[in-house]
């Protein structure tokens, strides 16, 4: 960046930069983010009649495109530039435009504080860098999120460099595996790694003499004589293969061998999935708007985990011992359950043998809180006591400790931290969505937003849980480090300030192998291609078709003058981020779209008074206003209802029957479950370019990624596709088939669960052999919890108690 700044200041382009800063200054603001900076520069180029190349290719153009934030101070300008993914730099440009200097993040945070609060005392600095220093670290940004592959390579290199030492560590790790006092894998007769290697040879020789399909129960006593306990396999062939894999790992360690062997190790039997806020139930509940997707994710993950663990236990030869997997979704019990099952302490997860929803009530602080649903922004004061109560309940249900605790969203991750820290259990963190990057400048102006959102507690909880976690799984690469044009959700925690509270000078190591890209799947029993006619229920198809296009119910707004037009389908909740109103405005401004298409919306509310907060109420009213403004009556249909999963799956297929399209118009979407559902159903799908959908819809021409801030451009993209389909009827079919295959091949719960369990085992082993930094890190997290988090939530509690 030094050369780029120098090129600008040593040329006529310095005048351009000076004029651009002057334009920004006229706004009276201090802080500017990338989109506003780019738009201001584009307007400047147009008004100054600069040649077309200047916007992108000039030195000042390149500098502006690398810039993600500008802060204007009286004497200078501050630039946050990002020359590469996961690499942000701070540069200070003097007010006379004569010199520039690279600065530390701390210096920028100090400036930000001064501009928000005129007087700034000394402030706490949070620095997590020492806990990652010296640990194995990914060096190529392209490999961020592939921690499992990195650790496999690292561990194999260590085995090669010091085989005897690592053989002893492998022996010790396997020797500690047991289930309810039952020794697994290695018995007392084997006392060292060297002896283990010798006994493996004897065991393989014995197994070569057995029929391959001989059940383990028939020869287990002979293996025990050699020092091997149950867990290696359920047949002679399976046990021999597993022992041969381990032998190969000892003498010629390779990542593929390590991964295959670890996948066979029976080390996970009990799993907790923590998902707290919202209504966590099954078919007729599935959360409220703010948790709808998360509840489905957790339910499907639980089913897949229980099924996979059952399969692993059987293949390991442990089912004859009566060992069974046990999966628990941990959530809160809500006494005033509004006709749902959320007041039941224990509920079995459908289509499982031993997966359960365990509901634990909030302690008696305030009956209004204890007995009723409350927003995710108000939940923070009750999590510590909830975790303590939940720990007792879990130990009772499991009759022992879990092997893995998975947190979901910020609150679930904090509880997962408290539980795993207390129980000494492997912790996995799943953010789903981090609020900080969704609310612009939310950290800078947190004090103005505190009454409604309590971001001081939430952002502190995020810092604690993401650093305490043994591993983090994300649905997309962008979730971690964004794109060349956008900062990732986790990357936004790298450094930031919360004025008068603390500075984060290094909040997370994005190159840590703890980050792992493990996308979720989609339930293919419910969501499958429209072309699978034999799997569809004709009666259900008729019902759903009538619901979408013709039936009149109080929860349905609008009729279609011409129901045979190509349908544009969209499903979203009423929040500004989901941006349903943006889609309606895009449709309303395009006469060409209206002539060719109908717009069908599936949302959960119809009237502003049904919303739970003013923002959502405003979106509902705005949608009504847009329908009137653009005279969309007869062209739009708005279903204000929650369809069952079965009906929803058929709704996608009915739209596909009519060669419709699906549009996801969010301003930002960390992943997008509905995108998976629409694509696997065979619907050509257009989705926001801001977030994980860039990876889901991976096409060379970028024809299906849309910019929701560019209404005309989006309408033109959709129209271009429709015109191609009208000229070439096979076009729609080809895209439909491509999208179905894309999801079927890449986004499956089977693959997700395999990766999740592999990560659990590898990181459990890693923590066993390199625990030093974890203890210090956890003490640091405890300090943040007690000195920052708890005082913040006590203020929320005072408000709830009326104090």
Tags for this model:
803 residues; alpha/beta; eight-stranded mixed beta sheet; 14% strand; SUS_EPBD; Sucrose_synthase_pln/cyn; transferase; glycosyltransferase; sucrose synthase activity
In short:
It contains 31 helices and 25 strands.
List strands and helices in order, with pairings.
Layout: H1 2-9, H2 13-25, E1 31-33, H3 34-47, H4 54-57, H5 59-66, E2 67-72, E3 76-84, E4 87-94, E5 100-103, H6 105-116, E6 124-127, H7 147-161, H8 163-175, E7 178-179, E8 182-183, H9 193-207, H10 220-226, H11 236-251, H12 255-264, E9 270-274, H13 292-315, E10 326-333, E11 346-348, E12 355-361, H14 367-371, H15 383-398, E13 404-408, H16 409-423, E14 426-430, H17 435-438, H18 446-453, H19 455-468, E15 471-474, H20 478-481, E16 496-498, E17 502-506, E18 515-517, H21 538-549, E19 556-557, E20 566-571, H22 580-589, H23 591-596, E21 597-603, H24 614-629, E22 636-640, H25 645-657, E23 661-664, H26 673-680, E24 685-688, H27 693-696, E25 705-706, H28 711-727, H29 730-746, H30 749-769, H31 772-800
Parallel strand pairs: 6-17, 9-10, 9-13, 10-12, 13-14, 14-15, 15-18, 20-21, 20-23, 21-22, 23-24, 24-25
Antiparallel strand pairs: 1-2, 2-3, 3-4, 4-5, 7-8, 11-12, 16-17, 19-22
Helix pairs in contact: 1-5, 7-8, 7-12, 8-9, 9-11, 11-12, 13-30, 15-16, 16-19, 19-31, 21-25, 22-24, 22-28
């Amino acid at each position: 960046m030094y050369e780029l700044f120098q090129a600008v200041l040593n040329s006529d382009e310095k005048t351009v930069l000076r004029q651009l800063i002057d334009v920004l200054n006229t706004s009276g603001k201090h802080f500017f983010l990338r989109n506003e900076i780019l738009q201001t520069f584009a307007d400047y180029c147009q008004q100054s009649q600069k040649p077309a190349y200047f916007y992108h290719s000039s030195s000042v153009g390149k500098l502006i495109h690398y810039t993600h934030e500008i802060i204007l101070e009286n004497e200078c300008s501050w630039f946050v530039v990002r020359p590469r993914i996961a690499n942000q730099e701070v540069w200070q440009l003097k007010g006379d435009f004569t010199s520039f200097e690279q600065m530390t993040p701390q210096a920028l945070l100090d400036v930000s504080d001064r501009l928000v609060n005129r007087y700034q005392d000394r402030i706490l600095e949070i620095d997590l860098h020492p806990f990652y220093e010296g640990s194995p670290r990914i060096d190529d940004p392209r490999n961020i999120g592939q921690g499992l592959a990195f650790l496999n390579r690292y561990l194999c290199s260590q085995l090669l460099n010091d085989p005897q030492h690592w053989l002893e560590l492998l022996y010790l790790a396997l020797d500690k595996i047991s289930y309810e006092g039952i020794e697994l894998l290695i018995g007392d007769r084997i006392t060292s790694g060297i002896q283990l290697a010798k006994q493996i040879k004897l065991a393989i020789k014995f197994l070569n003499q057995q029929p391959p399909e001989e059940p383990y129960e028939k020869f287990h006593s002979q293996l025990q004589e050699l020092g091997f306990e149950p867990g290696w396999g359920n047949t002679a062939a399976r046990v021999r293969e597993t022992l041969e894999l381990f032998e190969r790992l000892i003498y010629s360690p390779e990542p593929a061998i390590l991964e295959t062997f670890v996948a066979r190790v029976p080390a996970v039997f009990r799993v907790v999935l923590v998902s707290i806020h919202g209504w966590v139930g099954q078919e007729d509940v599935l959360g409220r708007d703010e948790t709808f997707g998360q509840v489905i994710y957790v339910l499907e993950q639980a089913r897949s985990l229980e099924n996979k663990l059952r399969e692993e236990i059987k293949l390991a030869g442990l089912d004859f011992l009566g060992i069974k997997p046990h999966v628990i979704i941990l959530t809160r019990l809500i006494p005033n359950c509004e006709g749902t099952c959320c007041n039941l302490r224990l509920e079995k997860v459908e289509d499982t043998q031993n997966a359960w929803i365990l509901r634990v009530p909030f302690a008696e602080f305030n009956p209004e809180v204890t007995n009723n649903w409350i927003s995710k922004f108000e939940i923070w004061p009750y999590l510590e006591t909830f975790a303590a109560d939940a720990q007792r309940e879990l130990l009772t249900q499991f009759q022992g400790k879990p092997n893995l605790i998975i947190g979901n969203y910020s609150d679930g991750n904090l509880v997962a931290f408290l539980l795993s820290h207390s129980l000494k259990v492997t912790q996995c963190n799943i953010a789903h969505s981090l609020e900080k990057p969704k609310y612009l400048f939310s950290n800078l102006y947190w004090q103005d937003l505190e009454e409604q959102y309590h971001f001081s507690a939430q952002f502190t909880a995020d810092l604690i849980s993401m650093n305490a976690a043994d591993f983090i799984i994300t649905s997309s690469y962008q979730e971690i480090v964004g794109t060349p044009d956008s900062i990732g959700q986790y990357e936004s925690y790298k450094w930031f300030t919360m004025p008068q509270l603390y500075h984060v000078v290094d909040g997370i190591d994005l190159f840590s192998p703890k980050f792992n890209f493990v996308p979720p799947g989609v339930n293919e029993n419910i969501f499958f291609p429209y072309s699978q006619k034999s799997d569809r229920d004709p009666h259900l198809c008729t019902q759903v078709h009538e619901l979408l296009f013709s039936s009149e119910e109080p929860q349905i707004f609008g009729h279609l003058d011409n129901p045979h037009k190509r349908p544009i389908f969209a499903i979203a909740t009423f929040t500004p981020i989901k941006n349903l109103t943006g889609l309606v405005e895009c449709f309303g401004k395009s006469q060409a779209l209206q002539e060719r298409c109908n717009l069908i919306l599936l949302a959960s509310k119809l009237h502003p008074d049904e919303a739970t907060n003013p923002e959502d109420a405003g979106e509902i009213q705005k949608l009504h206003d847009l329908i009137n403004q653009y005279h969309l009556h007869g062209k739009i249909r708005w279903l204000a209802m929650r369809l069952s999963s079965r009906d929803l799956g058929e709704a996608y297929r009915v739209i596909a029957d009519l060669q419709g399209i699906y549009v996801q118009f969010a301003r930002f979407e960390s992943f997008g479950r509905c995108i998976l559902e629409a694509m696997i159903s065979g619907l050509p799908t257009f989705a926001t370019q801001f977030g994980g959908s860039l990876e889901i819809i991976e096409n060379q021409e970028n024809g299906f990624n849309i910019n929701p801030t560019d209404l005309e451009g989006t309408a033109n993209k959709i129209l271009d596709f429709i015109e191609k389909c009208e000229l070439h009827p096979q076009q729609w079919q080809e895209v439909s088939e491509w999208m179905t295959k894309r999801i079927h091949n890449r986004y499956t719960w089977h693959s997700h669960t395999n990766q999740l369990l592999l990560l659990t085992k590898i990181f459990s082993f890693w923590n066993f052999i390199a625990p030093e930094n974890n203890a210090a890190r956890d003490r640091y997290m405890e300090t943040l919890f007690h000195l920052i988090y708890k005082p913040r939530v006590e203020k929320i509690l005072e408000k709830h108690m009326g104090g």
